[in-house]
């Protein structure tokens, strides 16, 4: 056999051995984990900071604002009066109602004594008792209206927006102020629904906030019960770990996830 022939035979034998020793790539745990890690590393979902509680206080009565319990950004405690109305008219109605209740009560007592002496009929007693019930209801209504003259904070927090000013007249249902709660902030973000293969409540990740240019640890607290069929994403909620006074509702940033952490 010539030199060229021996060289070709050697090349063929080496090629056959290489093919026999090679193993086909099979999708396994390592490959899936690497793909998930690469997928999560390339995705940077946008996040939004939100307060635990927030609401808009509205007027429950028609009247004039006598006092506001704070200015923009000021803190307040739970139960503090945030809006006070001029209640002179409601107070006057309460006095009238109490006077009518006292008068109706005296009349009922008189009718009952006369009925005991058979000088008044049962119908007269029932009419007098109905007058007492009506007057008592008027007093209760006046007390409810007076209670609506003071709007108290449902939780401790800060004033986020003022819709009115002191001495301004308002109507029922008119917005007065927006308030947000103190305490830990929530994170809301949308992530690819394919991440559900490894993402669950309790999963830890990092959040880079644009406004502070800092990174904070966070934990997934809840996942939406439905996947968005159009975007193939799912909304999740999370919480920042620890206390960070510099963080405010409305700040935003990006999240960095790692599968299995």
Shape: elongated
Distance between the termini: 63 Å
Mean pLDDT value: 84
Radius of gyration: 37 Å
| CATH architectural type of the domain at 87-148 | Orthogonal Bundle
- Kindly provide the name of the CATH class of the domain at 87-148: Mainly Alpha
Runs in which pLDDT lies below 50 for 5 or more consecutive residues are 7-29
Helix content: 25-40%
CATH superfamily of the domain at 87-148: Helix hairpin bin
Give me the secondary-structure category. alpha+beta
Largest sheet: 6 strands, antiparallel, barrel
The count of strands amounts to 14
Q: What is the count of DSSP helices, taking H or I runs of 4+ residues?
A: 4
Q: Tell me the series of helices and strands, N- to C-terminal.
A: HHEEEEEHHEEEEEEEEE
What fraction strand? Answer: 25-35%
CATH topology-level name of the domain at 87-148: Helix Hairpins
Read across the widest sheet, the strand sequence of neighbours is 1-10-13-12-11-14
From the structure above, extract its key features.
261 residues; alpha+beta; four-stranded antiparallel sheet; 4 helices; 30% strand; elongated
Short description:
By secondary structure, this protein is α+β, with helices and mostly antiparallel strands.
Overview of the structural elements:
By secondary structure, this protein is α+β, with helices and mostly antiparallel strands. 34% of the residues lie in helices and 30% in strands. The protein has helices at residues 3-21, 29-42, 88-116, 122-147; strands at 46-51, 54-58, 63-68, 75-76, 81-85, 150-152, 157-162, 169-170, 175-181, 185-192, 204-209, 214-223, 233-240, 252-256. The strands form three sheets. Strands 1-10-13-12-11-14 form a six-stranded antiparallel barrel. A four-stranded antiparallel β-sheet has the order 2-9-7-4, with no helix packed on it. A hairpin with a 4-residue loop joins β11 (204-209) and β12 (214-223). The radius of gyration is 37 Å and the shape is elongated.
